[in-house]
């Protein structure tokens, strides 16, 4: 709860964040949108019921709406619009001849307003320049405190639909700014003069008498009323601009769709990198852990076997570093074409099986001929599936025998891996990500995946079917 003077400081604050989505909510909303949010406090509603009576809360809210920090920033935003209007208005006055002193006062005032109307189409034409949306969006976020600020774009207008909406906003900004600037420059000084002349001016006195007003209003009352009109107009027009900013400066439907597609692409790339790191590095670390444990047990009794295990650890680590460098190449965007195609394929399953044999895992492998002729992208994904399946055997069953069968038909590749259930080790709390990664890879290749105990409960079975044609074309 915020009461007293502290409430004035609270509700005038604004918070901002940097989709992003651009996000910039932009961001993003991902859309080159700068992000900032406005919030109002409800603390004064509670404080209005304490101390000074129930009417104090609404009164303070009204004063803040007219004179608070947000209202002052919106007034600056409107004055900026009036300053931007001046070149167009001066050009229009010259073209219309409204500065001719031989015209009467009434006609000259009408021509001034006609010049204002004529200047707005010129301003709209200027706003078709793409960078205008970026400048106006940044100004609106900094000064206008728009509602749903995350939807206000701060990037150039790429399409004609966005440019037309920017032109509409620019016209409103300049028109409202011209009104408020004129009232501020002319009305505020005149109001001060009225306040300083309590008896008023002779011209005003005669005006009241000519119109039959029995008791002319004193100067201070008129001055305060005029100031209230200026302040109220500024607050009202500033609030309208804040409400319309997300509509006119926000992303178009096509921009929202493009931003969503970019976000989906980024998420898919991140998921792919996560799978690559999990499968390659996770397999290497599991193998290294088993080999190091075996070497430590026989270091004194069988130094020759320990040396062989250490050599296997070195080879496994080198291979893992090479695969890790290939994956990180995607993140660094260095040699993207080669990095995206790096990695072992089904043709390298023999090396993987030899590496597992050094950890004590005996794999009875039945590999169909012709695996080396599969599309490279498809073959890499299938290799990762086999690698992760064998890593799960190594991680959960240890050096236990396993059976691997990789079959190749005209349109399908089948992968079947079985291992005994009687030697299972306790898994990590919450489970791992291996089976999930296998399922994601199979789904990306439009295949299917099944994993679980066999009917007799003695074996764990992983079965994956991948369509060769769609997977090869997709990759």
Protein topology:
Elements: H1 5-11, H2 43-47, H3 56-67, H4 69-96, H5 105-126, H6 131-144, H7 160-196, H8 202-210, H9 219-249, H10 253-298, H11 303-332, H12 336-340, H13 349-358, E1 363-367, H14 376-397, E2 402-408, E3 412-420, H15 434-444, E4 448-453, E5 459-467, H16 468-474
Helix pairs in contact: 3-4, 4-5, 4-6, 4-7, 4-9, 5-7, 6-9, 7-9, 10-11, 10-14, 14-15, 14-16
What do these coordinates show?
The protein has 475 residues and is of the alpha+beta class. It has 16 helices and 5 strands. Strands 1-2-3-5-4 form a 5-stranded mixed sheet.
Question: What would the keywords be for this entry?
Answer:
single chain, 475 residues, alpha+beta, five-stranded mixed beta sheet, 16 helices, 62% helix, disordered C terminus
């Amino acid at each position: 709860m915020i009461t007293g003077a502290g409430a004035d400081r609270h509700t005038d604050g604004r918070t901002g964040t940097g989709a992003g989505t651009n996000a910039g909510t932009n961001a993003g909303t991902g859309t080159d949108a700068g992000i900032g949010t406005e919030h109002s406090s409800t603390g004064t509603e509670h404080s209005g019921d304490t101390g000074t009576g129930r009417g104090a809360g609404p009164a303070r809210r009204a004063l803040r709406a007219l004179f608070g920090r947000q209202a002052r920033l919106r007034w600056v935003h409107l004055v900026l619009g009036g300053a931007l209007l001046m070149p167009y208005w001066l050009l229009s006055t010259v073209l219309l001849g409204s500065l001719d002193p031989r015209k009467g006062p009434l006609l000259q005032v009408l021509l001034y307003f006609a010049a204002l109307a004529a200047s707005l189409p010129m301003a709209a034409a200027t706003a078709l320049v793409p960078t205008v949306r970026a400048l106006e969006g940044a100004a609106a976020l900094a000064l206008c405190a728009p509602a749903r600020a995350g939807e206000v774009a701060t990037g150039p207008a790429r399409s004609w639909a966005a440019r037309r909406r920017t032109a509409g906003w620019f016209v409103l900004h300049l028109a409202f700014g011209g009104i408020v600037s004129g009232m501020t420059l002319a009305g505020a000084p005149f109001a001060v003069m009225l306040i300083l002349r309590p008896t008023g001016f002779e011209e005003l006195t005669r005006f009241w008498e000519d119109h039959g007003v029995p008791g002319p209003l004193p100067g201070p009352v008129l001055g305060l009323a005029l100031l209230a009109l200026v302040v109220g107009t500024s607050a009202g027009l500033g609030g309208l601009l804040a409400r319309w900013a997300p509509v006119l400066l926000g992303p178009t439907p096509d921009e929202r769709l493009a931003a969503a597609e970019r976000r989906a692409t980024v998420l898919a790339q991140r998921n792919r990198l996560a799978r690559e790191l999990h499968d390659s590095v996770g397999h290497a670390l599991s193998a290294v852990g088993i080999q190091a444990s075996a070497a430590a047990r026989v270091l004194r009794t069988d130094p020759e076997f320990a040396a062989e295990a250490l050599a296997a650890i070195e080879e496994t680590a080198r291979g893992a570093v090479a695969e890790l460098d290939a994956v990180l190449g995607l993140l660094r965007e260095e040699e993207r074409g080669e990095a995206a195609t790096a990695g072992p394929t089904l043709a390298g399953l023999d090396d993987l099986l030899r590496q597992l044999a050094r950890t004590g895992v005996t794999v009875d492998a039945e590999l169909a001929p012709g695996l080396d002729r599969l599309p490279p992208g498809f073959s890499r994904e299938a290799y990762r599936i086999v690698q992760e399946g064998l890593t799960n055997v190594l991680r959960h069953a240890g050096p236990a025998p396993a059976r691997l069968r990789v079959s190749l038909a005209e349109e399908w590749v089948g992968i079947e891996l079985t291992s005994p259930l009687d030697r299972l080790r306790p898994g990590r709390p919450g489970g791992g990500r291996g089976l999930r990664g296998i399922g994601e890879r199979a789904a990306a290749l439009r295949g299917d995946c099944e994993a679980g105990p066999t009917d007799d409960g003695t074996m764990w079975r992983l079965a994956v079917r991948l369509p060769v044609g769609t997977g090869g074309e997709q990759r």
